[in-house]
Amino acid sequence: MPAEADAGSTSYVRDLRQGWDFLRGEPVLVAICAMVAVTNLVDQAYAAVLAPVWAKESGAGVGVLGTVFAVMSGASVLGALAAARWGETLPRFRTYVVAFLVAGAPRYVVMALESPVWAVLAVTAVAGAASGFLNPILGAVILERIPAPLLGRVSSLNTAICWSLMPLGGVLGGLAVAGLGVSPALLVAGAVYLVTTMAPTRVPSFRRMDRAPAADART
């Protein structure tokens, strides 16, 4: 028994290295990790600083701010349910592009332009519904590109990278508002979101998200 336990033992460093060695050899996964890390940072800046400051300076108040977050969350759930029902029939790459164009920059821009509350809520609802299609697509692409023996090592590393910049979101959001004002900061955040989400489309290999890898390559 001891010999078998030793043979099956692993080390954290070795597991981490194996996960990294595989991840860096997959251009699609690298592009997704980098993109999601930046969008998570911008979303954190939005939730922690930009939207609350907008609510205060526009006079909308905390009630409207809570409604904005609730509308975004509720619409995202509905979008995810729609993705679960019809997602398999949709082309992944085109759905990714359209969903991020709708879910990203518009909700920053509509606040920056000092639009009425109803317009902010309407854009937020559409953005939330579009965002519901994103995680199912990205999750499917990630999972089907990772061999079963490495699934835990690579997927956990992927998650860690995607969340790695979030602690900086509030800090950078605060610096942007202090240095530029809330409306310019929202426009900058929207521009960063747009560039970040569309940048992977310039990587030819990223279009391979539409094709599942060959079965023999994943074993």
Shape: globular
How many helices? The count is: 11
Largest sheet features? none
User: How many separate structural domains?
Assistant: 1
Rg over C-alpha atoms, rounded to the nearest angstrom: 20 Å
Structure notes:
The N terminus and C terminus are likely disordered. This protein has a single domain, classed as MFS general substrate transporter like domains (Growth Hormone, Chain: A). It contains eleven helices and no strands. It is globular and about 55 Å long. By secondary structure, the protein is mainly alpha-helical.
Quick tags:
single chain; 219 residues; mainly alpha; Growth Hormone, Chain: A; 0% strand; globular; disordered N terminus
Question: Topology of this protein?
Answer:
Layout: H1 2-8, H2 12-24, H3 27-58, H4 61-86, H5 92-103, H6 105-112, H7 117-131, H8 134-144, H9 151-163, H10 167-180, H11 182-198
Summarize the structure.
The protein is mainly alpha-helical. It is built from 11 helices and no strands. 77% of the residues lie in helices and 0% in strands.
